[in-house]
């Protein structure tokens, strides 16, 4: 009996040793990776002073980490189940819905859009040439300069209203010829899903994508305002002013199909694992591997590197997309050759001091056994420099205003053309301020109204505005002084 027990004990020990040697290294490696990512995010967050974010990293179906950091403006601690607005990461879900219906034979990607929405773009002769695939690849010919959705006096509230609003749109290039990132392309795709499935778009996503992927805390809304009302009650995000986060109400914006989804780090981990199956077996009830491959492949001919809800870099074997609102941001990436997926969700809008992609890059460095970069420009120093800059501008402006008499003495002794040249140069800051919307469109192709521009670049607008107003005052005071002295000379 003793011998039998001894034999069993030894066998059990051998089995344990084998299991530890086979299983533990991978588990420990993943734990070590998770710890490295956690340490990196904490250091990066402390340096950047971002109020809060959540991150998830997967390796195919394996979850490496899903965790939250920081807090919401209400003080609630962020965890892996805290909801964030995904912004343009929503486009991938819309593309998935379209490809699901294509698998069922209800949508043909190369059919014209008007086959599914007959009344779309009635005033555009080339509308018959715009296909569903063109919308997916952002090569429809539509763009912000032909239809400036952000400058609408009244935002639509439904997909039907959004389609009707587009009656005023003009093409800015021939269909299929040029890439123009344009949110309404994906609003039209959402309407096609409704028209073909005979279901509301939010309901379709819930039943055919969110539920099968077990994304229990993910939902879709039509308008930004719906995020912050019951039943969702999403916390406010943050904008940045003088380098400091400031809780702010997101401007009204119709977002169904292009930016209307809110989700969590835990749910997005499931989404990334699903997307990584493009090179594996069929994914079953959500989307087949072949359709995923189509979704992740840019169009032929080099007209665009935009696949369907993904920016594709085929040489680097990665797929990437960002999302940016005025108070929320998001970043996601798939390293398709290595099977890694990363998502970072942030409760802050555009940040002049922190490149949000750097979070993805740092995590990639860790996955590649490299040391990530955690340094960033000190936010406190930025705040001090901005305040000093504003004070210097104000001091010099007031100083010039008080020295108008000295200016007049110099004016009398210099050539008139020099005076008027200096005066014209003082108009520069105000002229530059007025040109900001046009420069933004020239650089990015996006068309924004002033309230949105001020939320994106409040510090830049404040500096230019103060410079412009002070210089206009200086010019006005000098001209008034000159006018009065000339009148005195005439009266004498």
Automatic annotation (TrEMBL):
The chain crosses the membrane at residues 380-398, 419-440, 460-483. Coiled coil: none annotated. It comes from the Bacteria. The keyword Repressor does not apply. GO terms for molecular function: hydrolase activity. Keywords: Hydrolase, Membrane, Signal, Transmembrane, Transmembrane helix. Residues 1-29 form the signal peptide. Residues 37-349 form the Beta-lactamase-related domain. This is Class A beta-lactamase-related serine hydrolase. It comes from Mucilaginibacter gilvus.
């Amino acid at each position: 009996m003793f011998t039998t027990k001894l034999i069993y004990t030894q066998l059990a020990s051998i089995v344990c040793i084998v299991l530890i040697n086979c299983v533990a290294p991978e588990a420990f490696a993943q734990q070590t990776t998770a710890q490295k990512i956690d340490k990196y995010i904490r250091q990066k967050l402390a340096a950047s002073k971002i109020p809060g974010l959540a991150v998830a990293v997967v390796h195919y179906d394996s979850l490496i980490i899903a965790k939250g950091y920081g807090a919401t403006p209400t003080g609630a601690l962020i965890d892996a189940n805290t909801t964030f607005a995904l912004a343009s990461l929503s486009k991938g879900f819309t593309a998935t819905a379209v490809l699901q219906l294509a698998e069922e034979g209800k949508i043909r990607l190369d059919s014209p859009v008007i086959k599914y929405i007959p009344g779309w773009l009635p005033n555009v002769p080339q509308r018959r040439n715009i296909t569903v695939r063109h919308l997916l690849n952002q090569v429809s010919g539509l763009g912000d300069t032909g239809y400036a959705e952000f400058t609408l006096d009244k935002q639509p509230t439904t997909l039907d209203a959004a389609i009707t609003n587009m009656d005023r749109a003009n093409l800015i290039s021939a269909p299929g010829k040029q890439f123009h990132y344009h949110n309404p392309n994906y609003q039209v795709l959402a309407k096609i899903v409704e028209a073909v499935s005979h279901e509301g778009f939010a309901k379709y996503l819930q039943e055919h994508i969110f539920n099968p992927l077990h994304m229990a805390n993910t939902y879709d809304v039509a308008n930004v305002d719906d995020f912050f009302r019951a039943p969702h009650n999403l916390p406010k995000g943050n904008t940045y002013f003088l380098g400091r986060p400031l809780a702010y109400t997101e401007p009204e914006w119709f977002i169904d199909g292009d930016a209307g989804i809110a989700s969590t780090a835990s749910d997005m981990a499931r989404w990334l694992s699903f997307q990584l199956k493009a090179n594996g077996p069929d994914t079953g009830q959500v989307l087949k591997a072949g359709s995923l491959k189509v979704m992740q492949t840019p169009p032929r001919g080099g007209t665009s590197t935009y696949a369907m809800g993904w920016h594709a870099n085929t040489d680097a074997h990665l797929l990437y997309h960002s999302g940016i609102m005025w108070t929320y941001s998001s970043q996601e990436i798939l390293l398709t050759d290595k099977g890694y997926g990363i998502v970072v969700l942030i409760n802050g809008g555009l940040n002049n001091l922190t490149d949000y992609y750097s979070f993805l890059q740092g995590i990639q460095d860790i996955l590649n056994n490299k040391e990530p970069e955690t340094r960033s420009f000190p936010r406190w120093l930025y705040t001090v420099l901005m305040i000093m800059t504003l004070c210097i501008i104000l001091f010099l402006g007031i100083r010039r205003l008080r020295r108008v008499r000295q200016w007049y003495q110099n004016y009398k002794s210099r050539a008139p053309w020099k005076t008027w040249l200096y005066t014209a140069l003082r108009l520069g800051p105000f002229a530059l301020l007025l040109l900001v919307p046009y420069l933004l469109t020239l650089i990015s192709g996006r068309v924004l109204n002033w309230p949105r521009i001020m939320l994106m670049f409040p510090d830049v607008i404040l500096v230019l505005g103060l410079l412009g107003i002070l210089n206009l005052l200086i010019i006005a005071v000098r001209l008034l002084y000159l006018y009065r002295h000339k009148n005195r000379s005439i009266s004498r």
